[in-house]
C-alpha cells in the first residue's frame, strides 16, 4: 500500500499511491528524474483528491527516481519514493520495399534495423489463398530474396520483427511477380 507504478511502457507509466490526503487537507508534490541525471528533475503538483497519475514523454530504457511528497496542512506524512524503469522502445518495421521482381522471385527489404530485434520473419503467400511460407532472417540483416514463386501472381509479404523482449510487430506489403517467358 505505497507508491508504485503500473502500465509501464517505453515512454510512460502510471503511478498509484494510497489515499493520504483529501481535496481539503492538502496536495501532493511529485518529483521525478532519471537516476543517471537527477539534474533533469521535473516537478508536478497534484490535487489531494488524486491517488494516481500518468507520467509521459519519458525516455525509453531509463530508470526514474520518483518521490511523492504529501503537502498536508493537518499531518506530516513522509515522502514516498519508488524507482521505475521504462521499457525498451519497440518500433515496428516502418517500410517494406519490394524490388527486383522477376517471374520466379523478388527482393524484400525493410527499415529501420534496430538493435532490439533478434530476428525477422518474412511470411509470403499468393493472393488469394492461404498457403503461407516463412523465411527466418537474422536481426542484423534488412533484406532477403524470396524465390521459387509462380509467375504473374500477387503475393502478400509480411515482415515481422521479433524483439528481445519476446514482443512481435509486423508490417505487410504486396508484391507481383512478372509474367513468365513463353515456353516456361
UniProtKB/TrEMBL annotation:
GO cellular component: extracellular region
Membrane listed as a keyword: no
Domain Fibronectin type-III: from-to ranges: 1-90, 92-180
Location relative to the cell: Secreted, Extracellular space
CDD domains: FN3
Keyword Metal-binding part of the UniProt annotation: no
InterPro entries with a match to the protein in the record: ECM_Regulatory_Proteins (IPR050991), FN3_dom (IPR003961), FN3_sf (IPR036116), Ig-like_fold (IPR013783)
Origin: domain of life: Eukaryota
Keywords, in A-Z order: Glycoprotein, Repeat, Secreted, Signal
Name by which UniProt lists this protein: VWA1 protein
Organism: Edolisoma coerulescens
Amino acid at each position: 500500500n505505497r507508491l508504485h507504478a503500473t502500465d509501464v511502457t517505453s515512454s510512460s507509466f502510471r503511478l498509484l499511491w494510497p489515499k493520504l490526503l483529501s481535496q481539503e487537507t492538502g496536495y501532493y508534490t511529485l518529483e521525478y528524474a532519471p537516476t543517471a541525471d537527477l539534474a533533469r528533475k521535473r516537478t508536478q503538483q497534484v490535487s489531494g483528491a488524486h491517488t494516481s497519475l500518468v507520467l509521459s514523454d519519458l525516455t525509453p530504457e531509463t530508470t526514474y527516481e520518483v518521490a511523492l511528497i504529501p503537502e498536508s496542512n493537518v499531518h506530516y506524512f513522509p515522502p514516498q519514493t519508488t524507482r521505475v524503469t521504462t521499457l525498451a522502445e519497440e518500433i515496428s518495421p516502418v517500410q517494406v520495399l519490394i524490388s527486383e521482381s522477376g517471374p520466379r522471385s523478388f527482393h524484400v527489404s525493410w527499415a529501420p534495423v534496430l538493435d532490439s530485434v533478434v530476428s525477422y520473419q518474412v511470411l509470403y503467400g499468393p493472393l488469394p489463398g492461404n498457403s503461407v511460407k516463412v523465411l527466418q532472417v537474422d536481426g542484423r540483416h534488412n533484406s532477403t530474396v524470396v524465390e521459387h514463386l509462380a509467375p504473374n501472381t500477387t503475393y502478400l509479404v509480411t515482415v515481422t520483427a521479433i524483439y528481445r523482449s519476446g514482443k512481435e510487430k509486423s508490417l505487410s506489403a504486396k508484391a507481383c511477380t512478372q509474367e513468365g517467358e513463353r515456353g516456361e
